[in-house]
Amino acid sequence: MKKTLLPLSVVCLALACLGAPAKLRVQHTNPSADAANKSADSTSAAKQDDKSGKQYSGMYSFLKEGEFVQVTVEDADTVTGFISRFEAEADKGEFLDQFFKTGRLDGNHLTFTTQIVHGVAFEFKGTVERGEGRNLADEGYYVLKGTLTANATDASKKVTSHTQEVTFKMFPQDAAPQ
Asked: In DSSP terms, which residues pair with 113 in a beta bridge?
């Protein structure tokens, strides 16, 4: 015996023609339960971000006023980003963006190396730590602390390295929920 399925609209039309009472189901929502579910979802997402390090993603100060480091944690250990810095001499006062060639996050240990631009590459080795900011809307909620090495190559291919201890503060984040 072959079974044939009829579309729901045909069934409802047939019932209406026959005079049979049609029952419609309406799903009622409970606003407080929905809010609790959303809150639980955002809490579990925040815990997942804590493990992945994605909460460290953002813009941080760099060496001079107006310069910054953009750090984006992609996976559990892959980091992308760039340094935007001011080059007064070579580029007539314009900003240069130096993208990360490599970047890694292991727990809160961060390392990255930039591509060479105008003969200079940067290497950072350090940690991401909680700063003085009370919440993400405050400057310095997270800070990058560590050693920054600037490797400069001159025309004769001689490399000069300058190393310094640095602390880069995270810029304030938008406090609006996502």
From this structure: 102, 123
- Scanning the structure block, which residue is given the tokens 């314009």? 94
Q: Rounded distance, CA 75 to CA 105, Å?
A: 9
Apex 173 CA angle, 103 and 178, nearest 5:
95
Range of the domain at 82: 52-169
What's the whole-model pTM score? 0.69
pLDDT in tens, 53-95: 899 999 999 999 999 999 999 976 899 999 999 876 655 667 8
For residue 164, give the nearest of 153, 150, 178, 176 by alpha carbon.
Answer: 150
Question: What's the total number of domains in the chain?
Answer: 1
Alpha-carbon distances, residue 37 vs 27, 41, 42 (angstroms): 17, 6, 9
